[in-house]
Write a structure and sequence with these properties.
By secondary structure, the protein is of the alpha/beta class. It has five helices and five strands; from the N terminus they run αβαβαβαββα. The strands form two sheets. Strands 2-1-3 form a three-stranded parallel sheet, with helices on one face. A two-stranded antiparallel sheet has the order 4-5.
């Protein structure tokens, strides 16, 4: 039920400025139904000027599992330029599934407002995906402030 703090919102806007400086495409934002996840996703959507706003999905709720997220992503939409706002350890489990096909093999250790980019050929993945980048919120904020 906790809301993002004023400082949290400010730091998140700096993170999104870093994403924009890196020219990361964002076409869709999918969020857990928990309040702070929705607030985070709304800031990302706002900063990227997304007219459709945020898709809130129970697939990103704590404990939903990677199969639920993959199903939500594969619902007839092109899965490109999508930001997922969820929770740990669920995002690490999803990352491991995308990269190796196994939920517990890779430990990413996402920090709040951390960002990773993955490429997979299909959803659900039939082969191992690739990690394009893994950035901490501090790195993204520094990039955002530099531009």
């Amino acid at each position: 039920d906790r809301r993002l703090t004023g400082e949290g919102k400010r730091k998140l806007r700096e993170v999104v400025a870093g994403m924009r400086a890196l020219e990361l495409p964002v076409e869709r934002v999918l969020a857990s139904p928990l309040r702070r996840a929705v607030e985070t996703a709304e800031i990302v959507a706002e900063e990227y000027g997304l007219a459709n706003g945020v898709d809130v999905s129970s697939a990103l709720a704590p404990g939903a599992g990677p199969d639920a997220v993959l199903h939500a992503l594969g619902e007839g939409r092109r899965a490109s330029g999508i930001v997922l706002v969820g929770h740990e350890p669920d995002l690490t489990v999803l990352a491991s599934t995308l990269l190796t096909g196994t939920p517990e093999l890779v430990r990413m250790g996402f920090r709040k407002a951390g960002l990773a980019g993955f490429v997979v050929a299909t959803l659900p993945p039939r082969s191992k995906g690739a990690l394009e980048f893994f950035l901490t919120p501090g790195q993204l904020r520094r990039i955002g402030r530099a531009h």
